[in-house]
Amino acid sequence: MKRLILILSITLLSLNLQAQRIQNNSTWFDGEVLYRATVDGDAVYMQGKSEYRDDYQFTMTRNPEKEGFYTIDYDDPQLLKRILRVEPDWEVQYIRQEGMYFLLFFNDKNEPVWLMYLTPDSLEHNVKFQRDIEKYPPDGITSDCLLNIHYFDNYDVQTLALMRNEIYARNGYNFSNRELKEYFENYSWYSPVEDNSTIQLSIIEQANIALIQSEEKFKSLNSPEQEQIIEVSNEYEFLSSLGSNRTIVIKENTHLNFSNLLNMPNILRDCNIGFADYVDNSFFYHPNTILSEEVFDGRQLTMIGINNLKIVGEYPSSIVVDPRYAVTLNFLKCENITIQNLTVGHTETGNCIGSVISLRNCKDVNILNCDLFGCGTWGIEAYNVTNLIMDSSIIRDCSHGIMVLNSVNSAKFFHSDFYRNNGAVVADYSTRGIHFDSCRFTQNGSHLFIELYDLALSNCDIHYSSEFNLDVDESILQHSRVYYDNADLDYRPVGPTSTND
Questions:
Q1: What is the mean pLDDT of residues 424-428?
Q2: Number of H helices, E strands in the chain
Q3: C-alpha of 201 from chain center
Q4: What DSSP character marks residue 141?
Q5: Sign of CA dihedral 269, 273, 277, 282
């Protein structure tokens, strides 16, 4: 569907809603952070914690002239905007209707932009519920479940528009737009009414529509620009070039180590790169952000909300870092990322943290003809990632293991070699769709596959010592060859290559 229209504008302020004051010690969840309210007269202090940090805080002041309304206050407006996508002096409405208790945050145009609901549950239970909900397809769920920006952020503008209009369609809205009408007529549940004015949406549906509209607008304002192709030959040029919708070509015989530059705030300011002590999921709503993030023994490069980025090396070229506890390339909430024809790693090996490539809440990541080596932990760390592909690449000499995959949906590895790593491929119970095709494993000092619940092996050569256990189903091994040795691998064209090869 090429075009979708805005059907209605929902203003929750116009509803006759029950309201009450926020209670002391009440807890509120926004999909990522659990806040606890401390009430002192008309002031409400909200202190929150997520899975990754426990120092979220902001203040609201009750409006005595508008029952159920509060005004946001904060000492650090930029932090507030990054965490909640709101700003000081914007309004918050406490809504209680149809058994729902939630806070709705409005911008200065009276448009809802954020939501958090009252909950008696712990952070752990709320996060689990959020992750479970995110696995459901969007069909129908928006009419039954009060959702949040964290949920809607998983979808592109076109899908969001369909989700929003589906709410109307499930209530029998008679569309005048031909494309929408024909689209929903394909569903047996769609039964249009004669008079749209008879439709009454529930408070859940109204809140979800308002937040979907907010997310559509937010994504539209950050839509892709025309792709750029930029050639770089030093660290300053590389850092200055980072961003969305571009291909960065690292020129032949260029070997980048930006560890020193990441400690120079004045130079980084010229590159539009900021300083941060610690980066977590609260930064997800601050797209197109590049940061120098502090780690135990230095700083690491962290890219947030970057989309459609290719980093391509002309052979030979490389990216390395000095701090043993730094991730060489750290991506948060990024989409359509390609790392190609590069050697990437650390100048020294550590023993705690510091993977070669780290991916958190990312989609559509391609690692092609790369050599990932010598890190503090893993060649790849992937958390809540969809569609990870590695082709014709190497992971070697990693002090903890080959990779760790948590909450990953589809990870495919083709024609790649994994050797001399101290550990295995490790995954959690929620990771699905792991497939190794024409890959080779040898001299890896541990059980090779740990807790991989949805693993496929095709045409693989697996060398491992008899003292370890493969920990995979025998039927899977029938599609590959197993050798009880630690033999070196014969040469084949994997890793970075010259165009003349």
A1: 87
A2: 9, 35
A3: 32
A4: G
A5: positive
Where does the pLDDT of residue 300 fall: very low under 50, low under 70, confident under 90, or very high at 90 and above?
Answer: very high
Residues forming beta bridges with residue 462, ordered by sequence position: 441, 482
Domain ranges, ordered by start, for the chain? 18-221, 228-483
Q: Reduce the secondary structure of 300-314 to three states and give it as a string.
A: EEEEECCEEEEEEEC
Q: Is residue 228 classed as helix, strand or coil in its secondary structure?
A: strand
Give me 18's structure tokens. Answer: 């029950």
Q: Is 277 helix (H, G, I), strand (E, B) or coil?
A: coil
Dihedral sign of CA atoms 61, 62, 68, 70 in order? negative
This prediction has a pTM of 0.61
Q: Is domain 18-221 classified as CATH 1.20.58.1690?
A: yes
CB 326 within 8 A of CB 300: yes
pLDDT tens readout for residues 207-262? 999 999 998 888 776 665 556 899 999 999 999 999 988 999 999 999 999 999 99
SS3 assignment, position 407: coil
In the predicted model, what is the mean pLDDT of residues 53-73?
Answer: 88
Q: CA distances (Å), 445 to each of 401, 419, 462, in order? A: 8, 9, 13
| Structure tokens belonging to residue 205 | 């549906």
End-to-end CA distance of the chain: 44
Structure confidence at residue 449 as a pLDDT band (50, 70, 90): confident
Distant-in-sequence, close-in-space partners of 459: CB < 8 Å, separation ≥ 6: 437, 438, 479, 480
Per-residue CA distances from 369 to 180, 230, 307, 377, 401 (Å): 44, 20, 21, 21, 20
What are the backbone angles phi and psi of residue 219, rounded to the nearest 5°? -70, -35
**Which CATH entry fits the domain spanning 228-483: 3.40.190.10, 2.160.20.10, 3.40.50.300, 3.30.70.3450?**
2.160.20.10
Give the span between the Cα atoms of 298 and 306, in whole angstroms.
23
315-339 pLDDT tens trace: 999 999 998 889 999 999 999 999 9
Q: Which residue has the tokens 């790649």?
A: 416
Residue tagged 């060649």 (tokens): 379
Interacting residues of 402 by C-beta distance below 8 A, sequence separation 6+: 378, 379, 380, 395, 418, 421, 423, 424, 425, 444
Which H or E element spans position 475? Answer: helix 474-477
Q: What is the SS3 assignment for 83?
A: helix
Integer Cα distance of 453 and 390 in angstroms: 20
